[in-house]
Automatic annotation (TrEMBL):
Sorted UniProt keywords: Hydrolase, Metal-binding
NodB homology domain span: 53-226
Protein name from the UniProt record: NodB homology domain-containing protein
PROSITE patterns referenced in this protein's UniProt entry, alphabetically: NODB
UniProt-listed Gene3D superfamilies: Glycoside hydrolase/deacetylase
InterPro entries: Glyco_hydro/deAcase_b/a-brl, NODB_dom, Polysacc_deacetylase_ArnD
Keyword Hydrolase: yes
Organism: Nonomuraea maheshkhaliensis
């Protein structure tokens, strides 16, 4: 679906739900997406993470068969997150990515087939990124602005192949190793700090089962759930670990 077509669909849904007069323009898309998901006007406003307690939830390796369930958990807490998707999975399940994007989440690249980029030639690195960009654009109409290298593996040669920010993390929940929802939730709640960029994987059912407890616990502590770009006021640095 083209970006213009997606925007029209979202705006029409907004107008139907609220009776509002449509305001054409990209700037109107963020509050529209928020309103469709039940957010109030206050919650739809941009978050200033220099003042608010913000945390960026990030999910790697999808989309997968548990992603839709995760989207429902996030919607229940009006949480925004960043999904670093694998290109071949996007090509196989573009509808999941469209739903994720339409819900107001950020879509980043996690390469086409999840290789260690430091072991590839420059040409193959660029191919991994380009194929993923094409798949994401075909699904949601825009190319991703962020990159997370598989395994967190990158070097100078990899960085030279892209100008987009490389997003790492400040908190690894070890969900990929633990495969236990209670342990994943405990580790997250014990280790989180304001400005944390938290690493999850939505391909594991145990991770998705952990999310209600994580979201509930962090909400009680006053955290706001934002995308990586929102965490940095729309301008992430070239290399991201977590905001200070």
């Amino acid at each position: 679906m083209a970006a213009a077509a997606l925007s029209v669909t979202v705006r029409e849904a907004w107008a139907k739900a609220t009776g509002a007069v449509e305001v054409v323009g990209a700037a109107s898309l963020t509050p529209v997406l928020a309103a469709i998901n039940g957010a109030t006007a206050e919650q739809a406003r941009p978050v200033d993470c220099r003042r608010a307690k913000c945390v960026a939830l990030t999910f790697d390796d999808g989309p997968g068969k548990y992603t839709d369930a995760l989207l429902r958990h996030l919607a229940a807490y009006r949480a925004r997150a960043t999904f670093f998707v694998v290109g071949q999975n996007v090509a196989a399940s573009p509808g999941v990515v469209r739903r994720t994007y339409a819900a107001g989440h950020e879509i980043g690249s996690h390469t086409w087939s999840h290789p260690d980029l430091t072991k590839l030639s420059a040409v193959r690195v660029r191919s991994q990124l380009a194929r993923t960009d094409q798949a994401i654009k075909a699904a949601i109409g825009v190319r991703p602005k962020l990159l997370r290298p598989p395994y967190g593996a990158f070097n100078t040669a990899v960085r030279l192949q892209t100008r987009r920010p490389i997003v790492m993390w400040s908190l690894d929940t070890l969900d990929w190793r633990l495969r236990d929802s209670a342990k994943v939730a405990r580790k997250t709640l014990r280790s989180v700090r304001p400005g944390s960029v938290i690493l999850f994987h939505d391909i594991h059912p145990s991770t998705v089962r952990a999310m209600p407890r994580v979201l509930r616990g962090l909400s009680k502590r006053g955290y706001r759930f934002v995308t990586v770009s929102q965490l940095y006021g729309g301008h992430p640095p070239r290399l991201v670990y977590g905001a200070q």
